[in-house]
Amino acid sequence: MELYEILLLVISFIVLLSIGVPISFSIGISSLLTMLLSINTLPSLTTVAQRMATGIDSFALLAIPFFIFAGQLMNSGGIARRLIDFAKVLVGKLPGGLAFVNILAAMFFGAISGSAVAAASAIGGFMTPVMEKEGYDKSFSAAVNITSATTGLIIPPSNILIVYSLASGGVSIAALFLAGYIPGIIFGLSLMIVAYVYAIKHNYKVNFEFSFSFAVKKFLEALPSLMLIFIVIGGIVAGYFTATEASAIAVLYAFILSVFVYKEIKFKDLPNILLTSASTTAIVMLLVGTSMAMSWVMAYENIPQNVANALLALSSNKIVILIIINVILLFIGTFMDMTPAVLIFTPIFLPVVVQLGVNPIHFGIIMVMNLSVGLCTPPVGSVLFVGCSVANLPITKVIKPLIPMFLAMIVALLLVTYIEDLSLLIPRLFGY
């Protein structure tokens, strides 16, 4: 009977997704159908509802709406433009400088806002017209913007690392944040290498000159924005506040910066910003709730144990198992959003890799890097759609320049997968 229930869970989920049912509803309905087959009607309805409610009843998850609100304030508050200007000073004179600027600005902005979609929208909105004016191929500009936007999911503060902490049973959020720095930088550098080769091949000229005083001015303008990273992460690591408390501080700092320092948000703009933040939060929390229900159903049906046994039966070699898991996650990422993927597959794969000696912090970074690739791929890549919309291009035009970017991201993923010190060096320095 257990086999039929597993098949019902998987097939109903795939069918619902394929006919266009939103992913949160697909997860919830397939979980409920499986419960109806295994128990009876009333307990099934009650159990699914209870698991959804308890799934979002977490103090750590309170950080997500705050970070989302802070990201919306930053997106509207002129922070992106100042970070782009500062990035120009740092890398604008290199071959393919504007592509480098896009990548570096996305790393800065993503690290501050924690949102890949916000980074693709804010940075792409500024950079795409500028790059096109300077003679850059528009599809290449869009590909750079789409892939670089995902670096902010790895470089903290990151909402998805908070979700992984919940799914893993309480891995330290501070340790995960610290672990994301080097992999995030490697992600960005790998994209820069591709951009450099592309710029040399297409002979893109460097037309950016600046004086020392100009560089100092742009640095000082961007400094208040960059300080948010040090305030949030420094406060968490030093033990002054938790990640949840840090998210509230991020909102306060972003509000003061956008409204009173940069003066680019008026009080009349706040209702729309709050509404957008609430809408985004509702979507995320519904995904979390339904995904936690599906995770419980899978545990009830012993799916994690069965998968673990199957993987370990294939091989007990850590290298082989990590390759298999990475391939599976790359496939999953093409049709499932990152939040439910982390919530559903962390309980399945984490026990396997822990048995093989993989640190849970390290595996969290591997999962997030891996699933970041899926955000840039059809059919459900949210960052891909936003990046194409910003550039006003169909997806088919962007796929060709995206391919070398994907390869660079996968190379970076493999480096982080097999050199664990890239993830664990900084956490260990701070005693995690």
Shape descriptor: globular
**Count of β-strands:** 0
Radius of gyration: 22 Å
The helix count comes to 21
Helix/strand order: HHHHHHHHHHHHHHHHHHHHH
Biggest sheet overview = none
Q: How widely separated are the two ends?
A: 44 Å
Report strand %: under 5%
Number of domains: 2
Task: Give the helix level as a range of percent.
Answer: over 70%
Instruction: Give the quaternary arrangement of the chains.
Output: single chain
| Structural class determined from secondary elements | mainly alpha
Low-confidence stretches: none
Question: What key attributes describe this structure?
Answer:
78% helix, 432 residues, single chain, globular
Short summary:
This protein has 432 residues and is mainly alpha-helical. It has helices at 2-18, 23-38, 41-55, 63-76, 79-91, 97-113, 116-133, 138-148, 159-167, 173-179, 181-201, 212-238, 243-261, 270-300, 303-314, 318-333, 338-355, 360-374, 382-391, 395-418, 421-429.
Detailed description of the structure:
The chain is mainly α and 432 residues long. It has two domains: 1-55, no CATH class; 56-429, no CATH class. It has helices spanning 2-18, 23-38, 41-55, 63-76, 79-91, 97-113, 116-133, 138-148, 159-167, 173-179, 181-201, 212-238, 243-261, 270-300, 303-314, 318-333, 338-355, 360-374, 382-391, 395-418, 421-429. It starts with a helix and ends with a helix. The model has no long low-confidence stretch (mean pLDDT 84).
